[in-house]
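re the bet — no i am not wrong, look at it urself. input seq straight from the record:
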Amino acid sequence: MNLFTKRGQHVLNKNNILLGLTSVYIFYGFFEPYLNQLIGPIMRFYIIALAGLYILFHHGKLTIGAGIQYIVLWFFFECITIIWARNYEIIKMHFLTVLGFVVLLVCISQRPIDKRLINSMIYTFWIGSFLIGLLSLFFHSTYHFQMRFSARQVLTLGGVQTDPNNQAIFLMYGISISLYYLFVKREKILFSIVTIIINMISMLMTSSRGSFLSLGLMLLLIVLFVIKDWKTKLWALAASLVILGLMIRFAPSILSASSLERLLEFDSYEGGGNRITIWKNALTLINENLLYYIVGAGWGSYYNYNGWAGIHNTYLEMFCNTGLIGVLLFFIPIIRVIIDLWKKEKYLPIFIAISVFLPAVFLDCINKRYFWNAIYFLFVCYCSEYYSENELHERKTARVFQR
């Protein structure tokens, strides 16, 4: 039997296979630490295999989508910086992972974009995030590796945990989508409200400041710019104030005194992993050579520099690795995509980007799946619009010539 033929109402074709395997990849990312404990760290190999299937199903004829070529160039440039890098530990740990991310970005944005891919990504993000929030209410415990704020609570399954800040970003995926459906689409109201309530409680337990900042920015954009009519604006503002009031009212009963103090401690990030000291250390590395401002100190050169293993800032980490060249290659196309989607009022990928990119100021995310999944969704939505417009233009042009 030919697998790529229609039999009754059952269709098993290459698009269905790719959609299913891509959804598995996205969903796995939400529970990766826990599943890795059972079956090992297979995802870096799964992503390569998934990219291989995309290449196979497209007969090896891949085109690099609009803007994505710059991110591919960024990766090649980062590989070049290995020549002058002074430490190879990060390269050994992250090379395969980042390579897989970039290759999958190229593969997942192939023309034409299957509209079902966008819907599949949305619902996989939404369900995965909701499950993280729901499970966190019942299976949480104190985060083992926190030094000062030992009362931070995270989902714990089989003794395995994830970083509270990472978990908060997973929770923000669901909150972002729920806010979009609640205030923009005005659909799926009940599930959106339930998701927001559950994920907000779970996010409070993580005491993640970065995610609450991104939530505040998102609500501000929704009230000021996204919602057009004043009646809905006032309703959204009232709902936001109610959410804030409930947080203030119930936070003391949900959080310990130290976690509550952490959430309100915006004047200094020294308590949050000595970030100010770490960032100064990274700038010391850059200041060693003026050329480092242009080309970076080399991939992973910050590792163990003056005894610090990380930077806790994705943008500063990229600047240390690849300098201004790398930062511009990576983020200019992303900024362009966000601006284009905003003009077309395609807000959901922007909401998800905010929920990841703002906390990334305080985290090392370049090797994290949630960081790249937000980028995937941005470019899939952008390429879908871009290809559709081009196809429409091509059809009109063809009709003119036919006449």
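see?? Residues 369-402 form the longest helix (34 residues). told u. also Residues 53 and 80 are 28 Å apart (CA to CA). so pay up
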